[in-house]
Design brief:
The protein has 227 residues and is an alpha/beta fold. It folds into three domains: 16-114, NAD(P)-binding Rossmann-like Domain (Rossmann fold, 3-Layer(aba) Sandwich), CATH 3.40.50; 115-148, Double Stranded RNA Binding Domain, CATH 3.30.160; 151-222. It has eight helices and seven strands. The radius of gyration is 22 Å and the shape is elongated. The N and C termini lie far apart (52 Å).
Length: 227
């Protein structure tokens, strides 16, 4: 069986991206791009109230009709207008320039589609129906949001901090795997979900030694009351 789409996560930090369309859909696209570190240009004859809430210096609003040359120097384009012909032109222009292009609610004009996304810190879970049923993708997103709580964000943050500390101490990377497997298998995630900080500290110190505790990696108000 041949897959229709190739799943990928893009690093768009400091990349120039453009959104054509100043409505609420365009605003949502801009918000997602900026949150991922992109530098975003938005072209539209009008802008919805949602754009008044943006404070990022990485957003440029251009109040006029779309022009083909707007795509020059861009890494990625998103078309989010309510004009089918304009959206088709954006798609054609992007194709000629070999650009990544997404047209909202028009998968036939896209060379990539945007899945439903659940974020928990560095954990990114996506759900896609390959454009067949956006409504079902939305349901899957809600289901995943209920199943994966904020403890996953703390868990991955701690795992990353432990890894950095081990590397600073000149541990060989190949030695890390069994250590990480041990704290995973012994229930670190559940301990974080239950805010059982005493057990977390006991586990970390038993596997990694002194200097490894929840307080060292998640200081301040996130530490809470120890149990």
């Amino acid at each position: 069986m041949t897959w229709k789409y190739y799943p990928v996560c893009l690093d768009i930090r400091e990349r120039n991206c453009i959104v054509v369309g100043g409505g609420d859909i365009g605003a949502r696209k801009v918000s997602a791009l900026v949150n991922c570190g992109a530098i975003v240009k938005v072209v539209s004859l009008q802008f919805s109230r949602a754009f008044k809430n943006f404070e990022s210096k990485n957003i440029e609003l251009v109040k006029r009709e779309y022009r083909t040359e707007d795509l020059n120097g861009m890494f990625l384009v998103i078309g989010a207008t309510d004009d089918t012909e304009v959206n088709k032109k954006i798609s054609r222009d992007a194709e000629e320039k070999n650009m990544l292009c997404n047209i909202a609610d028009f998968p036939e004009a896209c060379n990539f589609i945007l899945p439903a996304i659940v974020r928990r810190g560095d954990l990114i879970i996506t759900a896609s129906t390959s454009g067949k049923s956006p409504a079902f993708a939305k349901k899957l997103k809600k289901d995943l949001e209920n199943e994966f709580g904020e403890e996953y964000a703390d868990f991955l943050f701690i795992m990353g901090e432990i890894r950095k500390k081990l590397l600073r101490e000149d541990h060989a990377p190949e030695e890390h795997k069994p250590m990480f497997e041990e704290i995973i298998n012994k229930g670190l995630l559940a301990m974080i979900a239950e805010k059982n900080y005493t057990q977390i500290d006991n586990l970390l110190s038993s596997v990694f030694g002194r200097g490894y505790s929840y307080r060292n990696f998640v200081p301040g108000e996130k530490y809470g009351d120890r149990r």
